[in-house]
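Consider the tokenized backbone below.
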């Protein structure tokens, strides 16, 4: 990925910001690059990007990028092929954290969306197997 980004910088499509961040030189360049992804693959692309971000940040403080990570994964969450129960619980926790942060920012519509996704990722017996999380989610949704 790094070499591809460096190549895009050399070609003038992107600029390097700081030591490890990159951004497109213009929104139209970003839009043109995005349009190269076939529509049928965009959801999968978003989910893959989100999962990469999640795996790189898992276990660390993701508070400042929680919305970006959750949004990317949620954009293509329906395209995840048979996620393991552990992954579903991890993604439920991620969405719960994003929902709590949205509540803290007084963005209740967005919070409701994250919390509903978190709830949908819990197993069907969640009131038995994950009682505390279920109670928290329903409490936050009230």
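A designed sequence for it:
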């Amino acid at each position: 990925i790094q070499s591809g980004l460096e190549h895009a910088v050399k070609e003038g499509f992107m600029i390097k910001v700081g030591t490890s961040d990159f951004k497109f030189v213009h929104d139209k360049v970003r839009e043109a690059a995005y349009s190269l992804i076939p529509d049928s693959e965009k959801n999968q692309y978003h989910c893959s990007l989100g999962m990469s971000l999640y795996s790189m940040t898992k276990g660390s403080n993701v508070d400042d990028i929680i919305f970006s990570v959750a949004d990317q994964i949620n954009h293509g969450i329906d395209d995840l092929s048979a996620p393991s129960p552990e992954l579903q619980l991890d993604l439920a926790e991620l969405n719960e954290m994003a929902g709590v942060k949205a509540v803290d920012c007084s963005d209740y519509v967005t919070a409701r969306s994250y919390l509903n996704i978190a709830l949908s990722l819990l197993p069907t017996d969640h009131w038995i197997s994950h009682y505390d999380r279920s109670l928290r989610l329903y409490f936050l949704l009230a």
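DSSP finds eight helices and two strands in the chain.
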